[in-house]
Every structure is written in C-alpha cells, then in structure tokens.
Amino acid sequence: MPILMPSAEVPTIDISPLFGDDANEKTRVAQEINKACRGSGFFYASHHGIDVQLLQDVVNEFHRKMTDQEKFGLAINAYNKNNPHLRNGYYMAAKGKKAVESWCYLNPSFSEDHPMITSGTPLHEVNIWPDEDRHPRFRSFCEQYYGEVFRLSRVLMRGFALALGKPENFFDPALSEADTLSAVSLIRYPYLEDYPPVKTGPDGMKLSFEDHLDVSMITVLFQTEVQNLQVETVDGWKDLPTSGDNFLVNCGTFLGYLTNDYFPAPNHRVKFVNAERLSLPFFLHAGHNSVKEPFAPEGIGDKELNPTIPYGDYLQHGFHALIAKNGQT
After folding, report:
1. Which of the following is catalytic: 42, 209, 254, 282?
2. pLDDT in tens, the chain (329 residues)
3. Which among 124, 135, 268, 285 is annotated as catalytic?
4. 212 an active-site residue?
5. Catalytic entry in 47, 72, 170, 212
6. Which of 153, 147, 158 is nearest to 284 (CA)?
7. Which of 148, 141, 145, 150 is nearest to 176 (CA)?
8. Catalytic: 239?
9. Nearest-angstrom CA–CA distance, 30 and 311
C-alpha cells in the first residue's frame, strides 16, 4: 500500500550549494531535502542551471511538426509491432480513446557496440530518432539535455546522500553516465474540443493518469505552468503548486526500497485538464548491474531491511507492475 504523506507542502530549495565546496551550506540544503521528502515527498529545485525556456521551445516545435506517419513509424512495440523497441520511441494517442502522446529516449551512450547492447541485456536500446532534415535541432538538443539533466540529478543525489546520513558521493558509483538506464519522456497533453473519455478516481476526480508511484531513483520534472498534479496525504488528495522556472523533484520507489521507506515514493496522480501543456520528466536510474545494499537511516527503528537486488531487476519488475496497474501510456 502507498504511504500517505504527512503534508502537501512543496518547498522551493536553492540547490546551488550542492555544486560548490561549502560543507555547511550543503548540509543545510540536505536538511531541507530531508524535510521535504518526509513531508509531501516533493520539492522544487531552483538555481539548477538548465535553460527551461529552450527546453519548452524545442519540445513544442517537435510535437507541432510530427506527422501521423512519423509517429507510427517511430512508435514503440505496443503501438507498432514492426518496432522491437519497448522504451525508446513514440507513445501514440488513439483517436477517441487516448489523447496524451509522448516521445521517450534513453542514454545516448547506448551505441551498437555498447557492451549491454551487444549482449542483448533487457532495457537497453539504441535510440531511434525522427528524420533530422525535418527536425534539424531535435536530436542534438535531446542528447545535450540528457547529459545536463543527468548531471543535475547526480548532484541532487549528493544532497539526498547527505540527507540520509551518508557521504555525499555515496550514490556516485551507481550513477555512471556511460551505463545509466535513465530516460527522458517528452509528454504532450493536448487541448481538444472533442476530448476522449477520461478516467475517474474513487473520489470522483477526473484523471488523465491514475495514482501511481514513480519507478525511479528520483524523478526530475519540468512542466508547463498548468496545475494538474496531486499527492495523496493523510488528509486526502491535495494539489501540488506549479512553477515556470524550477524542476519538481520526488523520490521513486527505489529510494523507498533502499531506505525502507524512510524516503518513500509519494503516491500521486494527474488531474484531467483540457489544456495544451507539456510534462517533461527525467527518470533517474542506476546502471543495470549496480547493487546498493538497503539500509536503515537514523530514526527508522528496527524495521527489517529489504533484500539486496541488482538495479536492472528492480527496474524490470517495477515497469511490469506499473503497466499492469495503469496500462500502457
């Protein structure tokens, strides 16, 4: 069962000290992260150093220019059986049934000669891309953005490590840019006069995506400033605030698993809003063979620790469970 979060407060944390050398300032930021993750489970990261206006401009341009033929040709296996890709590719809308659509891409380091590709290891795919003549800046931007948001996430994980009473480099060995299974999703929610049927939560709320826990280490999200997210708290479902400048950060189920739910993954959902908007999450993952031993942070008591599992096993199980519960996005 998901853990009900104590509050819906979402602080904005200036994370710039995590890039520097002042140990006292880093500790202060870590304490703020700790409070947020033990509260609503969410915080906004400010002073992150990424050009979010350029991000929106490129993604909006991409979605406007994609034709139906391009979308099908690049669609993942769930939509196009001719494409063996299960992760990288286009996730299509279905007229009269499903409006949301997205593009997901993986680690640009996964080339044809990458050891995990040559060995056929699950979850690893060489990215396919739209035609570069039609979308001239899309691939180069996406590959650059992947590196930027991955490095930002790795810095954030140093704050998480300090918040958990560990050395700041505790997660570094698991987060190699050459091997990370992290993914970017460029999700478009359209405005439609004839919107397809939407789901309804048990409380009667109309939903675009039902309640779920993120399958990730952490999720680093930029989205259009249209309020849509809710978190489940002890006082019921509560709206999360928006930001046009900052990244919304939350723990995924792996940090919950690793810390025996000292930092739980917050249960959240997407309200139905008939408005043109973007949701651009980066799901931070370790490498396939990465192994971290679960531990009990101070204050968690004598709760039995979870078994140690390779990250790739965790991720495969988590994806299957998420699709079984909420369906193919």
Report:
1. 209
2. 799 999 999 999 999 999 999 999 999 999 999 999 999 999 999 999 999 999 999 999 999 999 999 999 999 999 999 999 999 999 999 999 999 999 999 999 999 999 999 999 999 999 999 999 999 999 999 999 999 999 999 999 999 999 999 999 999 999 999 999 999 999 999 999 999 999 999 999 999 999 999 999 999 999 999 999 999 999 999 999 999 999 999 999 999 999 999 999 999 999 999 999 999 999 999 999 999 999 988 766 667 899 999 999 999 998 777 665 555 55
3. 268
4. yes
5. 212
6. 153
7. 150
8. no
9. 24
Does residue 209 have an active-site annotation?
yes
320 is catalytic: no
Domains in the chain, CATH or no CATH each: 12-326 (2.60.120.330)
Task: Given the residues 110, 124, 138, 214, select the one marked as catalytic.
Answer: 214
What is the rounded (10 degree) CA torsion for 116, 120, 124, 129? Answer: 110
